[in-house]
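Appendix B, Record 12. Input sequence as logged:
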Amino acid sequence: MSAEQLQHSIFVSPKCVKNTKFNRQYKCDKGSNNDSEVYASITPKIHQGIWPNFCLKHLQDDPEGCSAWSEDSSESLQLDFLIEGHSEAQIDRELIERLRHLSHLIPQRKQGDNRYCDYAYCPNCSQTVIRGISYYEDEDEDEEGNDFYSYIYFPVYKCGCTGQWWLDVDELWNEECDIYEGWQFCYAPTIYHGYFDWHHQTYFHHSQNFLLYQKENPSCSCYWPQSDSCAKEVSDYAYTKLTQAFETSNLDTARSTFTPYLSERSLHGFLSGLLTHTFFYSQYRDILFDLDQHSFKELSANDYPLVHNQLIDVEESIQGPFLKLYNQCLQQHPHPKIYYERGMVLFHRGDTLDSLEDIRKFIAYAEKNHYHDMLTSDLYLKEGRLLGESLSYDEAIVALTKAIEKDSMNKDAYFERAIAYFETGDFSKALSNYLASGIHPKKIDPKKVGGFNSITFGQGVALGILKGGQDSVTEFVPSLLSCLRGISRGIWTFVSSPIEVSQEMVDCTNACLEFIKENITKEMLCKLVPEL
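Logged structural output:
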């Protein structure tokens, strides 16, 4: 059998391996120290671990043979789904099938000791060599002389011929050495197995969407952290910042309930599971938003603000690197998806006009080239919101109407169009769109705010407005108070219904305006609110 035939032969499933007794442990030699250093230097932090990688062919043909095995109390072999630690793997056949038509786009590993497929076959017993995770407890002392224990994890190997798991082939006896030397390894180029790991499936749809982009723009490799240095830098930075956030706040206490697939993982395993399928800024933002919402539900009112600010800091810290990455990508191999992504970064940085320009480029490209699947209701909703932020309400209405035509159940589009109609003075359409949105914000409950005082609340709102005006009148006016109707967004957000505006909100608005009139100069007042 040739080497090529060996690499792609269909081996017997490890489910057929006979039950064997866990005994002495040996390790197969995995390469030189130099290879390990190269691996660490070029491998993204989220990909680092002790589990070997495999070629795409064997991941697809025998996912169980590329997974971690163990033995239960009756010494029966089983796939081990949830071992505490970060290096075990459960390659999921369903995930393999869902990406089968796109998996060839995943780049192969070209350096380091994980660049060769570790899949092996034993011709003596006609079985696949299986792998498991073992560990030993290491005792040490800290600087203060206190004892502490750590666990060292490592892969172990077994085939149908062996009576034990093997750890180190240099210590094998003659008969065992003959068995090992008979194993036939694949040695084909590998891809990262984590894309198909059962534990990592929470954000699996991110990889699906990203690979569709790769199919449309095959010359682009800008966002693979294992092959592009800038993408690796962003991935490692996000990983490091999130690690710090988990270690310095109570965010870690909410980790076990975030997703069942990662509930038993170490912090490294948890973060790898979150970030493995993350390539674009919008995908990072989805994960950070989900973490924030989960923390809001799980943490106390005292603990949540710190976590919230840390997650905002992570998002803001990756915006600059992503802008650099997107600018380079658009120069080398432009694609409408990247205009959209850059537009999202600009929008969240507060660059509304530049963001709108990128979003409209994306829409124009998609409309011209008949990419109708790209022209989603949410896309037009984002355009409408940006136009509304730019005070282009008539154009916002056009974009939001397209969003509703794409999806008549898009409640946010109705709500945004209600605001746009309100700003143009078409109160009848504003009301009908508001009712169509089905959105009913709750009234302020005086009992929950500890004695509601409309004057105090109005003064607080006014102070916030003045602070923004003092920072920059030019930038502030278009965003909040270019006219009296600029308060409409606040009214429509806080009241329970535009038909029955609560008396508290009316009082607050009046108190707010009176406070402004009494505490700023006439010149500043005219700049902020010309109608007054």
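The longest helix spans residues 304-332.
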